[in-house]
Write a structure and sequence with these properties.
One of its GO terms (biological process) is phospholipid catabolic process. The chain is an alpha+beta fold. The chain is built from 13 helices and 18 strands. Helix 4 links the parallel strand 3 and strand 4. The longest helix is centred in the last third of the chain and has 19 residues.
Length: about 500
Protein backbone atom coordinates (compact mmCIF):
# COMPACT_ATOMS: atom_id res chain seq x y z
CA UNK A 1 0.00 0.00 0.00
CA UNK A 2 1.45 3.38 -0.99
CA UNK A 3 1.67 6.39 1.31
CA UNK A 4 -1.31 8.02 -0.37
CA UNK A 5 -3.71 5.28 0.66
CA UNK A 6 -2.14 4.39 4.00
CA UNK A 7 -4.11 7.34 5.42
CA UNK A 8 -7.30 5.42 4.70
CA UNK A 9 -6.57 2.36 6.88
CA UNK A 10 -9.56 1.39 9.07
CA UNK A 11 -8.19 2.95 12.26
CA UNK A 12 -8.06 6.34 10.53
CA UNK A 13 -11.44 6.26 8.80
CA UNK A 14 -12.73 8.51 11.56
CA UNK A 15 -10.46 11.27 10.26
CA UNK A 16 -12.59 11.44 7.11
CA UNK A 17 -16.01 10.82 8.62
CA UNK A 18 -17.99 13.01 10.99
CA UNK A 19 -17.92 11.81 14.61
CA UNK A 20 -20.34 8.92 15.27
CA UNK A 21 -22.24 11.05 17.78
CA UNK A 22 -23.13 13.38 14.90
CA UNK A 23 -23.78 10.75 12.22
CA UNK A 24 -23.16 7.02 12.76
CA UNK A 25 -21.12 5.05 10.27
CA UNK A 26 -20.76 1.35 9.61
CA UNK A 27 -18.13 -1.04 8.30
CA UNK A 28 -18.66 -4.17 6.25
CA UNK A 29 -20.63 -2.65 3.38
CA UNK A 30 -20.46 -3.17 -0.36
CA UNK A 31 -21.10 -0.06 -2.46
CA UNK A 32 -21.49 -0.22 -6.24
CA UNK A 33 -21.86 3.02 -8.22
CA UNK A 34 -24.69 2.83 -10.75
CA UNK A 35 -23.73 5.42 -13.32
CA UNK A 36 -26.41 6.31 -15.90
CA UNK A 37 -30.14 5.94 -15.46
CA UNK A 38 -30.38 2.94 -17.78
CA UNK A 39 -28.06 0.91 -15.53
CA UNK A 40 -29.90 1.99 -12.39
CA UNK A 41 -33.37 1.33 -13.81
CA UNK A 42 -32.33 -2.13 -15.03
CA UNK A 43 -30.97 -2.90 -11.56
CA UNK A 44 -34.15 -1.66 -9.85
CA UNK A 45 -36.18 -3.86 -12.18
CA UNK A 46 -34.04 -6.86 -11.26
CA UNK A 47 -34.13 -6.24 -7.51
CA UNK A 48 -37.85 -5.45 -7.21
CA UNK A 49 -38.77 -8.16 -9.69
CA UNK A 50 -37.20 -10.71 -7.33
CA UNK A 51 -39.24 -9.65 -4.28
CA UNK A 52 -41.77 -12.04 -2.78
CA UNK A 53 -44.73 -11.86 -0.43
CA UNK A 54 -43.59 -10.59 2.95
CA UNK A 55 -40.70 -8.54 1.57
CA UNK A 56 -40.65 -4.78 2.06
CA UNK A 57 -39.98 -1.83 -0.24
CA UNK A 58 -39.46 1.73 1.01
CA UNK A 59 -38.87 4.68 -1.32
CA UNK A 60 -38.71 8.45 -1.40
CA UNK A 61 -38.68 10.57 -4.54
CA UNK A 62 -38.71 14.16 -5.74
CA UNK A 63 -40.64 13.26 -8.87
CA UNK A 64 -42.00 10.07 -10.42
CA UNK A 65 -43.72 9.43 -13.74
CA UNK A 66 -46.02 6.42 -13.87
CA UNK A 67 -45.36 5.78 -17.55
CA UNK A 68 -41.54 5.98 -17.42
CA UNK A 69 -40.18 2.71 -18.79
CA UNK A 70 -37.38 1.05 -16.86
CA UNK A 71 -35.99 -0.66 -19.96
CA UNK A 72 -36.77 -0.21 -23.64
CA UNK A 73 -39.32 -3.03 -23.71
CA UNK A 74 -39.81 -3.45 -19.97
CA UNK A 75 -42.44 -2.38 -17.47
CA UNK A 76 -43.23 1.16 -16.43
CA UNK A 77 -42.68 2.55 -12.95
CA UNK A 78 -46.39 2.07 -12.23
CA UNK A 79 -46.42 -1.51 -13.50
CA UNK A 80 -43.35 -2.48 -11.46
CA UNK A 81 -44.62 -1.05 -8.16
CA UNK A 82 -48.22 -2.20 -8.55
CA UNK A 83 -47.10 -5.75 -9.44
CA UNK A 84 -44.98 -5.87 -6.28
CA UNK A 85 -47.93 -4.77 -4.16
CA UNK A 86 -50.28 -7.31 -5.72
CA UNK A 87 -47.95 -10.22 -4.96
CA UNK A 88 -47.83 -9.32 -1.27
CA UNK A 89 -44.79 -7.07 -1.01
CA UNK A 90 -45.29 -4.25 1.49
CA UNK A 91 -44.64 -0.97 -0.35
CA UNK A 92 -44.28 2.35 1.49
CA UNK A 93 -43.48 5.62 -0.27
CA UNK A 94 -42.89 9.26 0.63
CA UNK A 95 -43.33 11.47 -2.44
CA UNK A 96 -42.80 15.20 -2.41
CA UNK A 97 -46.08 17.09 -2.43
CA UNK A 98 -44.92 19.63 -4.98
CA UNK A 99 -46.07 23.22 -5.06
CA UNK A 100 -49.01 23.71 -7.43
CA UNK A 101 -47.82 24.47 -10.93
CA UNK A 102 -45.59 22.97 -13.60
CA UNK A 103 -43.38 20.94 -11.27
CA UNK A 104 -44.29 17.49 -10.00
CA UNK A 105 -47.66 17.67 -8.25
CA UNK A 106 -49.83 15.79 -10.73
CA UNK A 107 -47.19 13.18 -11.57
CA UNK A 108 -46.49 12.35 -7.92
CA UNK A 109 -50.24 12.16 -7.24
CA UNK A 110 -50.51 9.46 -9.91
CA UNK A 111 -47.57 7.45 -8.57
CA UNK A 112 -49.04 7.63 -5.07
CA UNK A 113 -52.44 6.48 -6.33
CA UNK A 114 -50.89 3.47 -8.08
CA UNK A 115 -49.11 2.39 -4.90
CA UNK A 116 -52.17 2.89 -2.71
CA UNK A 117 -54.52 1.09 -5.12
CA UNK A 118 -52.26 -1.97 -5.20
CA UNK A 119 -52.17 -2.44 -1.44
CA UNK A 120 -49.23 -0.23 -0.53
CA UNK A 121 -49.19 3.12 1.22
CA UNK A 122 -47.86 6.35 -0.26
CA UNK A 123 -47.85 9.73 1.44
CA UNK A 124 -47.60 13.04 -0.41
CA UNK A 125 -45.28 14.99 1.85
CA UNK A 126 -44.93 18.78 2.00
CA UNK A 127 -43.29 19.11 5.40
CA UNK A 128 -40.67 21.50 4.05
CA UNK A 129 -39.70 25.16 4.33
CA UNK A 130 -41.61 27.64 2.21
CA UNK A 131 -40.16 27.34 -1.28
CA UNK A 132 -38.36 24.13 -0.37
CA UNK A 133 -38.67 20.54 -1.50
CA UNK A 134 -38.11 16.95 -0.48
CA UNK A 135 -35.20 16.16 -2.78
CA UNK A 136 -34.13 12.85 -1.22
CA UNK A 137 -34.10 9.82 -3.53
CA UNK A 138 -33.84 6.42 -1.89
CA UNK A 139 -34.95 2.84 -2.39
CA UNK A 140 -34.66 0.22 0.35
CA UNK A 141 -35.59 -3.40 -0.32
CA UNK A 142 -35.64 -5.78 2.65
CA UNK A 143 -36.13 -9.53 2.18
CA UNK A 144 -38.06 -11.54 4.73
CA UNK A 145 -35.75 -14.26 6.00
CA UNK A 146 -33.06 -13.30 3.46
CA UNK A 147 -31.21 -10.33 5.01
CA UNK A 148 -28.10 -11.04 2.94
CA UNK A 149 -30.12 -9.88 -0.08
CA UNK A 150 -31.20 -6.56 1.45
CA UNK A 151 -30.18 -3.55 -0.63
CA UNK A 152 -30.52 0.23 -0.67
CA UNK A 153 -30.04 2.82 -3.39
CA UNK A 154 -29.14 6.48 -2.75
CA UNK A 155 -28.32 9.17 -5.28
CA UNK A 156 -29.58 11.63 -7.85
CA UNK A 157 -31.85 9.65 -10.18
CA UNK A 158 -35.61 10.16 -9.97
CA UNK A 159 -38.15 7.67 -11.32
CA UNK A 160 -39.18 10.04 -14.06
CA UNK A 161 -38.89 11.06 -17.69
CA UNK A 162 -35.45 11.85 -19.04
CA UNK A 163 -33.41 9.70 -16.67
CA UNK A 164 -33.11 6.49 -18.74
CA UNK A 165 -29.95 7.40 -20.62
CA UNK A 166 -26.81 5.28 -21.00
CA UNK A 167 -23.09 5.76 -21.69
CA UNK A 168 -23.75 6.75 -25.32
CA UNK A 169 -25.74 9.74 -24.02
CA UNK A 170 -28.31 9.91 -26.79
CA UNK A 171 -31.02 10.68 -24.22
CA UNK A 172 -34.16 9.04 -22.87
CA UNK A 173 -36.86 8.54 -25.55
CA UNK A 174 -39.34 9.71 -22.90
CA UNK A 175 -37.85 13.17 -22.80
CA UNK A 176 -38.57 15.97 -20.30
CA UNK A 177 -38.81 19.64 -21.31
CA UNK A 178 -35.33 21.15 -21.19
CA UNK A 179 -33.53 24.06 -22.81
CA UNK A 180 -33.85 23.57 -26.58
CA UNK A 181 -30.07 23.40 -27.04
CA UNK A 182 -30.14 19.95 -25.41
CA UNK A 183 -32.19 18.65 -28.33
CA UNK A 184 -35.40 16.63 -28.54
CA UNK A 185 -34.07 13.83 -26.30
CA UNK A 186 -31.68 15.61 -23.92
CA UNK A 187 -28.58 13.57 -23.02
CA UNK A 188 -28.53 13.02 -19.26
CA UNK A 189 -25.63 12.11 -16.96
CA UNK A 190 -26.53 10.85 -13.48
CA UNK A 191 -25.55 8.40 -10.74
CA UNK A 192 -26.82 6.31 -7.82
CA UNK A 193 -25.05 4.23 -5.17
CA UNK A 194 -26.16 0.64 -4.55
CA UNK A 195 -25.49 -0.32 -0.93
CA UNK A 196 -25.42 -3.73 0.75
CA UNK A 197 -24.56 -4.42 4.37
CA UNK A 198 -25.31 -2.73 7.72
CA UNK A 199 -25.61 0.75 6.15
CA UNK A 200 -28.90 -0.34 4.57
CA UNK A 201 -30.46 0.04 8.02
CA UNK A 202 -29.18 3.63 8.26
CA UNK A 203 -30.77 4.50 4.93
CA UNK A 204 -34.03 3.02 6.21
CA UNK A 205 -33.70 5.13 9.38
CA UNK A 206 -34.02 8.24 7.21
CA UNK A 207 -37.26 6.94 5.72
CA UNK A 208 -38.63 5.91 9.13
CA UNK A 209 -37.91 9.28 10.75
CA UNK A 210 -39.88 11.10 8.09
CA UNK A 211 -42.72 8.56 8.10
CA UNK A 212 -43.07 8.69 11.89
CA UNK A 213 -43.10 12.51 12.03
CA UNK A 214 -46.51 13.33 13.58
CA UNK A 215 -46.73 16.71 11.80
CA UNK A 216 -49.48 16.64 9.12
CA UNK A 217 -47.92 15.85 5.76
CA UNK A 218 -49.75 18.63 3.92
CA UNK A 219 -51.61 21.89 4.39
CA UNK A 220 -55.21 21.42 5.44
CA UNK A 221 -57.52 22.98 2.86
CA UNK A 222 -60.32 21.73 0.57
CA UNK A 223 -58.13 21.73 -2.55
CA UNK A 224 -55.49 19.53 -0.95
CA UNK A 225 -58.15 17.28 0.55
CA UNK A 226 -59.45 16.54 -2.94
CA UNK A 227 -55.94 15.75 -4.19
CA UNK A 228 -55.39 13.38 -1.28
CA UNK A 229 -58.60 11.52 -2.04
CA UNK A 230 -57.70 11.24 -5.73
CA UNK A 231 -54.35 9.75 -4.76
CA UNK A 232 -56.10 7.28 -2.39
CA UNK A 233 -53.89 8.70 0.33
CA UNK A 234 -54.83 7.63 3.87
CA UNK A 235 -55.74 10.38 6.31
CA UNK A 236 -53.73 8.67 9.04
CA UNK A 237 -50.71 6.66 7.91
CA UNK A 238 -50.26 3.22 9.36
CA UNK A 239 -47.35 2.61 11.69
CA UNK A 240 -44.31 1.08 10.10
CA UNK A 241 -43.89 -2.64 10.73
CA UNK A 242 -41.54 -3.92 13.40
CA UNK A 243 -37.95 -3.31 12.41
CA UNK A 244 -35.79 -6.21 11.35
CA UNK A 245 -32.16 -6.51 12.42
CA UNK A 246 -29.60 -4.78 10.16
CA UNK A 247 -28.32 -6.85 7.26
CA UNK A 248 -25.03 -8.76 7.72
CA UNK A 249 -21.70 -7.49 6.48
CA UNK A 250 -21.29 -7.66 2.72
CA UNK A 251 -18.00 -6.01 1.77
CA UNK A 252 -15.01 -3.83 2.72
CA UNK A 253 -16.50 -0.34 2.60
CA UNK A 254 -17.15 2.09 5.43
CA UNK A 255 -20.32 4.12 4.86
CA UNK A 256 -21.73 7.23 6.51
CA UNK A 257 -25.24 8.31 5.53
CA UNK A 258 -25.50 12.11 5.49
CA UNK A 259 -28.56 14.35 5.34
CA UNK A 260 -29.83 17.89 5.04
CA UNK A 261 -32.99 19.13 6.76
CA UNK A 262 -33.87 22.81 7.14
CA UNK A 263 -34.64 24.64 10.33
CA UNK A 264 -38.40 25.17 10.09
CA UNK A 265 -41.64 25.54 12.02
CA UNK A 266 -43.03 23.21 13.12
CA UNK A 267 -39.63 21.55 13.52
CA UNK A 268 -38.72 18.03 12.53
CA UNK A 269 -38.78 15.90 15.72
CA UNK A 270 -35.56 14.19 14.61
CA UNK A 271 -33.85 17.50 13.67
CA UNK A 272 -35.32 20.37 15.74
CA UNK A 273 -32.84 22.91 14.33
CA UNK A 274 -32.44 21.16 11.01
CA UNK A 275 -29.54 18.95 10.01
CA UNK A 276 -26.53 19.93 7.95
CA UNK A 277 -24.35 16.84 8.15
CA UNK A 278 -23.82 16.93 4.37
CA UNK A 279 -22.35 20.43 4.59
CA UNK A 280 -20.14 19.57 7.55
CA UNK A 281 -18.94 16.33 5.96
CA UNK A 282 -17.94 18.11 2.75
CA UNK A 283 -16.20 20.82 4.75
CA UNK A 284 -14.28 18.18 6.70
CA UNK A 285 -13.24 16.34 3.54
CA UNK A 286 -12.15 19.54 1.80
CA UNK A 287 -10.00 20.40 4.83
CA UNK A 288 -8.16 17.09 4.32
CA UNK A 289 -7.79 17.44 0.54
CA UNK A 290 -4.19 17.49 -0.68
CA UNK A 291 -4.15 16.53 -4.37
CA UNK A 292 -7.48 16.58 -6.19
CA UNK A 293 -11.14 17.29 -5.52
CA UNK A 294 -13.27 15.98 -8.38
CA UNK A 295 -16.90 17.14 -8.55
CA UNK A 296 -19.86 16.39 -10.79
CA UNK A 297 -22.73 18.72 -9.99
CA UNK A 298 -25.94 20.07 -11.48
CA UNK A 299 -25.37 23.64 -10.26
CA UNK A 300 -22.14 24.34 -8.32
CA UNK A 301 -23.37 27.64 -6.95
CA UNK A 302 -22.83 29.73 -3.83
CA UNK A 303 -19.94 31.83 -2.59
CA UNK A 304 -20.30 30.27 0.87
CA UNK A 305 -19.96 26.72 -0.45
CA UNK A 306 -17.05 27.80 -2.66
CA UNK A 307 -15.32 29.32 0.37
CA UNK A 308 -14.63 25.88 1.84
CA UNK A 309 -12.85 24.87 -1.37
CA UNK A 310 -11.12 28.22 -1.75
CA UNK A 311 -9.55 27.85 1.68
CA UNK A 312 -8.25 24.42 0.70
CA UNK A 313 -6.75 25.78 -2.54
CA UNK A 314 -4.95 28.53 -0.64
CA UNK A 315 -3.69 26.12 2.00
CA UNK A 316 -2.50 23.34 -0.34
CA UNK A 317 -0.37 24.54 -3.28
CA UNK A 318 -0.53 21.13 -5.00
CA UNK A 319 -4.33 20.82 -4.79
CA UNK A 320 -6.46 20.85 -7.96
CA UNK A 321 -10.26 21.21 -8.13
CA UNK A 322 -12.04 19.90 -11.24
CA UNK A 323 -15.80 20.42 -11.61
CA UNK A 324 -18.10 19.01 -14.31
CA UNK A 325 -21.37 20.92 -14.73
CA UNK A 326 -24.11 21.38 -17.36
CA UNK A 327 -23.31 23.70 -20.25
CA UNK A 328 -26.66 25.48 -19.92
CA UNK A 329 -29.26 25.69 -17.13
CA UNK A 330 -32.30 23.49 -17.62
CA UNK A 331 -34.33 26.66 -18.27
CA UNK A 332 -32.06 29.30 -19.73
CA UNK A 333 -34.51 32.08 -20.49
CA UNK A 334 -34.27 35.80 -19.71
CA UNK A 335 -35.89 35.34 -16.29
CA UNK A 336 -34.51 32.07 -14.91
CA UNK A 337 -31.10 32.04 -16.58
CA UNK A 338 -29.37 35.11 -15.06
CA UNK A 339 -29.91 34.21 -11.37
CA UNK A 340 -28.41 30.75 -11.95
CA UNK A 341 -25.50 32.21 -13.91
CA UNK A 342 -24.97 34.75 -11.15
CA UNK A 343 -24.67 32.00 -8.53
CA UNK A 344 -22.25 29.90 -10.56
CA UNK A 345 -20.12 32.93 -11.40
CA UNK A 346 -19.86 33.71 -7.67
CA UNK A 347 -18.32 30.28 -7.08
CA UNK A 348 -16.11 30.56 -10.16
CA UNK A 349 -14.67 33.95 -9.20
CA UNK A 350 -13.93 32.90 -5.63
CA UNK A 351 -12.17 29.69 -6.67
CA UNK A 352 -10.18 31.23 -9.52
CA UNK A 353 -9.01 33.95 -7.16
CA UNK A 354 -7.87 31.33 -4.65
CA UNK A 355 -6.40 28.70 -6.97
CA UNK A 356 -5.84 30.27 -10.37
CA UNK A 357 -5.61 27.59 -13.04
CA UNK A 358 -5.62 24.87 -10.37
CA UNK A 359 -9.41 25.24 -10.51
CA UNK A 360 -11.44 24.69 -13.66
CA UNK A 361 -14.96 23.86 -14.77
CA UNK A 362 -15.84 21.65 -17.72
CA UNK A 363 -19.05 20.62 -19.42
CA UNK A 364 -19.84 17.59 -21.59
CA UNK A 365 -21.19 16.82 -25.05
CA UNK A 366 -21.99 13.56 -26.84
CA UNK A 367 -20.55 12.26 -30.11
CA UNK A 368 -23.01 14.37 -32.10
CA UNK A 369 -21.92 17.56 -30.34
CA UNK A 370 -25.13 17.86 -28.29
CA UNK A 371 -24.47 19.07 -24.74
CA UNK A 372 -25.07 16.54 -21.97
CA UNK A 373 -27.14 17.70 -19.00
CA UNK A 374 -25.12 16.86 -15.87
CA UNK A 375 -27.48 15.90 -13.06
CA UNK A 376 -25.02 13.69 -11.14
CA UNK A 377 -24.01 14.63 -7.61
CA UNK A 378 -20.61 12.94 -7.17
CA UNK A 379 -17.49 14.01 -5.29
CA UNK A 380 -14.14 12.21 -4.92
CA UNK A 381 -11.39 13.64 -2.70
CA UNK A 382 -7.82 12.34 -3.10
CA UNK A 383 -9.16 8.90 -4.13
CA UNK A 384 -9.93 8.27 -0.45
CA UNK A 385 -13.39 9.73 0.34
CA UNK A 386 -16.31 9.85 -2.07
CA UNK A 387 -19.99 10.70 -2.12
CA UNK A 388 -22.95 9.90 -4.33
CA UNK A 389 -26.19 11.54 -3.33
CA UNK A 390 -29.09 13.86 -4.05
CA UNK A 391 -27.38 17.07 -2.92
CA UNK A 392 -25.85 19.71 -5.13
CA UNK A 393 -23.02 21.97 -4.07
CA UNK A 394 -25.10 24.98 -3.16
CA UNK A 395 -26.69 26.56 -0.13
CA UNK A 396 -30.13 25.15 -0.96
CA UNK A 397 -28.88 21.55 -0.85
CA UNK A 398 -26.63 22.12 2.15
CA UNK A 399 -29.24 23.91 4.31
CA UNK A 400 -32.72 24.24 2.83
CA UNK A 401 -34.16 21.13 1.12
CA UNK A 402 -34.19 17.55 2.37
CA UNK A 403 -31.20 15.68 0.91
CA UNK A 404 -29.54 12.29 1.33
CA UNK A 405 -25.97 11.31 0.49
CA UNK A 406 -23.82 8.20 0.85
CA UNK A 407 -20.22 8.91 1.87
CA UNK A 408 -17.76 6.05 1.41
CA UNK A 409 -14.24 5.32 2.58
CA UNK A 410 -12.47 2.21 1.30
CA UNK A 411 -9.48 0.94 3.37
CA UNK A 412 -7.25 0.72 0.28
CA UNK A 413 -8.91 3.53 -1.67
CA UNK A 414 -10.00 1.16 -4.44
CA UNK A 415 -13.63 2.29 -4.75
CA UNK A 416 -13.07 6.08 -4.80
CA UNK A 417 -10.19 5.59 -7.22
CA UNK A 418 -12.07 3.25 -9.57
CA UNK A 419 -15.15 5.51 -9.50
CA UNK A 420 -13.09 8.54 -10.46
CA UNK A 421 -11.03 6.80 -13.16
CA UNK A 422 -14.14 5.22 -14.69
CA UNK A 423 -15.86 8.61 -14.93
CA UNK A 424 -12.72 10.24 -16.29
CA UNK A 425 -12.26 7.52 -18.91
CA UNK A 426 -15.80 8.10 -20.16
CA UNK A 427 -15.56 11.88 -20.19
CA UNK A 428 -12.01 12.17 -21.53
CA UNK A 429 -12.47 9.49 -24.18
CA UNK A 430 -9.64 7.30 -22.87
CA UNK A 431 -9.32 3.53 -22.34
CA UNK A 432 -10.11 2.57 -18.73
CA UNK A 433 -6.58 1.20 -18.29
CA UNK A 434 -4.82 4.35 -19.52
CA UNK A 435 -2.15 4.97 -16.84
CA UNK A 436 -2.69 8.73 -17.00
CA UNK A 437 -6.07 8.27 -15.29
CA UNK A 438 -4.37 7.06 -12.10
CA UNK A 439 -1.65 9.71 -12.05
CA UNK A 440 -2.65 12.53 -9.72
CA UNK A 441 0.65 14.40 -9.88
CA UNK A 442 -0.89 16.99 -12.25
CA UNK A 443 -4.50 16.01 -12.97
CA UNK A 444 -5.46 19.36 -14.47
CA UNK A 445 -2.91 18.96 -17.26
CA UNK A 446 -4.71 15.87 -18.54
CA UNK A 447 -8.08 17.63 -18.56
CA UNK A 448 -6.73 20.68 -20.34
CA UNK A 449 -5.03 18.44 -22.90
CA UNK A 450 -8.22 16.44 -23.56
CA UNK A 451 -10.66 19.37 -23.69
CA UNK A 452 -11.93 19.47 -27.26
CA UNK A 453 -9.67 16.60 -28.39
CA UNK A 454 -11.03 13.94 -30.79
CA UNK A 455 -13.08 11.37 -28.87
CA UNK A 456 -13.22 13.52 -25.74
CA UNK A 457 -16.53 14.76 -24.37
CA UNK A 458 -15.21 17.58 -22.22
CA UNK A 459 -15.18 21.26 -23.10
CA UNK A 460 -13.99 24.22 -21.05
CA UNK A 461 -16.80 25.89 -19.12
CA UNK A 462 -16.59 29.53 -18.03
CA UNK A 463 -19.76 31.02 -16.48
CA UNK A 464 -20.60 34.31 -18.21
CA UNK A 465 -20.14 37.53 -16.29
CA UNK A 466 -23.40 39.44 -16.04
CA UNK A 467 -23.75 43.14 -16.66
CA UNK A 468 -24.13 45.43 -13.67
CA UNK A 469 -27.71 46.12 -14.71
CA UNK A 470 -28.61 42.43 -14.83
CA UNK A 471 -26.92 41.78 -11.49
CA UNK A 472 -29.20 44.36 -9.85
CA UNK A 473 -32.16 41.99 -10.14
CA UNK A 474 -30.42 38.61 -10.59
CA UNK A 475 -28.64 38.83 -7.23
CA UNK A 476 -31.75 39.18 -5.01
CA UNK A 477 -33.63 36.63 -7.13
CA UNK A 478 -30.77 34.17 -6.75
CA UNK A 479 -30.62 34.49 -2.96
CA UNK A 480 -34.40 34.52 -2.41
CA UNK A 481 -35.58 31.89 -4.89
CA UNK A 482 -32.75 29.79 -6.28
CA UNK A 483 -30.28 29.35 -3.42
CA UNK A 484 -32.01 30.25 -0.13
CA UNK A 485 -30.48 29.74 3.30
CA UNK A 486 -32.26 27.21 5.52
CA UNK A 487 -29.97 27.50 8.53
CA UNK A 488 -31.20 28.65 11.96
CA UNK A 489 -31.12 32.42 12.29
CA UNK A 490 -28.15 32.29 14.65
CA UNK A 491 -26.00 30.80 11.87
CA UNK A 492 -27.07 33.05 9.00
CA UNK A 493 -24.44 35.55 8.02
CA UNK A 494 -21.70 33.23 9.29
CA UNK A 495 -19.56 30.66 7.48
CA UNK A 496 -20.63 27.88 9.85
CA UNK A 497 -23.00 24.99 9.23
Amino acid sequence: MDDHHRGCEPERVSEWFLPPAERPWTSGNLVVPRVHGADYFARILEVIGATRAGDRIFLTDWRGDCDERLTEDGPTVAELLSAAGRRGVEVRALLWRSHPGPLNAEENDHVGAVINESGGEALLDERVRRGGSHHQKLFVVRRKGRPQDDVAFVGGIDLCHGRRDDAAHEGDPQAPPLDERYGETPPWHDAMAEIRGPAVAHVLDTFAERWDDPTPVDHRNPYRAVLHRLARMPRHPEDLPERWDPPPEAGPHQVQILRTYPAKRPPYPFAPEGERSIARAYSRAFERARRVVYIEDQYFWSALVATTLAEALRREPELHVIAVVPRYPEEDNRISGPPMMYGQRLAWDRLREAGGDRFAMFDLENAAGTPIYVHAKVCVVDDEWMTIGSDNLNLRSWTHDSELTCAVVDPDGALPRSTRTSLWAEHLGLPPDDPRLSDLSDPMALWVERAGAPGSRIRHHVPPALSARTRLWARPAYHALYDPDGRPRKLRGTERF
